[in-house]
Amino acid sequence: MITKHLFRTVSIFLLAGVAFAGCNSSHRSTAEPATYANPLPVALGDPFVLSASDGKYYMYGTGGVEKGFGAYSSDNLIDWHYEGQVYSGDNPDSWTLKNYWAPEVYEKEGKYYMFFSADWKVNPTNELENFRIGVAVADSPTGPFTEVSDKPLFDPGYPIIDANILQHNDKTYLYYSRCCYKNPVESEVADWARAENLFDEIEESWVYGVEISSDFTNVIGEPVLLLQPPSRMSDPQTEWESRSVTSGEVNRRWTEGSFAFDHDDKIYMMYSANFFGGQNYAVGYAVAGQPLGPFTKAQNNPVLEKNSTSGGEVTGTGHNMMVRSKDGKKMYTVYHGRTEKTGDERVVFIDEMKIDENGLLTVDGPSTTEKEL
């Protein structure tokens, strides 16, 4: 059984070295053009950027600290300063035990709320994957964040990760991914894998959505299944969403790392597919008229994938989010990936993304050449 902690190679000492060597460099002159080249000098997985009311950006992600999360700050999305550890789990008052993943921070009425995934201490059946979603709060984007409850936000009865929040028409929605663990699914892809003597079964992760209270303390109603891997081989999404299976890499298909946002009266949901520890991790998107769907996957998926097959050096591109420039004129996607130089280390990339007049979303990446932000 494959779990993320087996593939997390981020070292505290390496991350600290990256931070002080790259992120704490001398401040960029305002007269200089805002240019950069990927990857950024930040070694994190599952990056999330908060555009805060104090005029700064704050980045959070998986890795870099023991049993918790650190944070970075920036004035320009290019130069990042390491702020240290901002949340610590596995203490007597915490519901968490290990495997701290995918933090996202939201500002609301002067407070900062962190949604994150972790292993739940309550595990009477000794499940190998016992992940749930929790919420922590702080008075500052640099913490310290303290859990709002001694238990997860809710328990759907199966392991869940990758929380994402959407505020829409005075309502709040939580999106999350049900883990592949103990979720075998019959499909034409599973039939094909058996016929090829690759795998006996294929497990899948699915994206759900549910309304939650405005104070982030409880769910309202029942979760709704929104996205899952395609079941038919003829589906145009099957090829790119099944590469980890068809390559013989692993017996799982993922739909995870969702990020939803409003645009032109539509809900865009970006998501990642394939094995997060491999080269085929990639990003697609789906569109809906309402926060709880139904969502329709885009014909131009994937919009972000490895470029190593076309002369580039980037692989494992995924778990992205969207952040706007301070003037609101540009959209950027922030994601993690790997290069030949970084090896198995997940590092942060940022590239511009656009949505044209026909609603087509595209990403100018993955890029490694110098360009203006």
Structural domain tally: 1
User: How would you state the average pLDDT, rounded?
Assistant: 92
Percent of residues in beta strands? 35-45%
Number of strands: 24
What do we call the CATH topology?
Answer: Tachylectin-2, Chain A
Oligomer: single chain
Give Rg in angstroms. 20 Å
Q: Based on the structure given, which CATH architecture is correct?
A: 5 Propeller
Question: How would you characterize this protein structure?
Answer:
The structure is a single chain. The protein is about 10% helix and about 40% strand. It has helices at about 10-25, 190-195, 240, 245, and strands spanning about 35, 45-50, 55-60, 70-75, 80-90, 100-110, 110-120, 130-140, 145, 160-170, 170-180, 205, 205-210, 220-225, 250-255, 255-265, 265-275, 280-290, 295, 315-325, 330-340, 345-355, 360-365, 370. The protein is built from four helices and 24 strands. The longest helix has 12 residues, at about 10-25. The chain starts with 11 loop residues before the first helix and ends with a strand. The strands form seven sheets. The chain has a four-stranded antiparallel sheet with strand order 2-3-4-5, covered by helices on one side. A four-stranded antiparallel sheet has the order 6-7-8-9, with no helix packed on it. A four-stranded antiparallel sheet has the order 10-11-13-14, with no helix packed on it. With about 375 residues, the protein is mainly β.
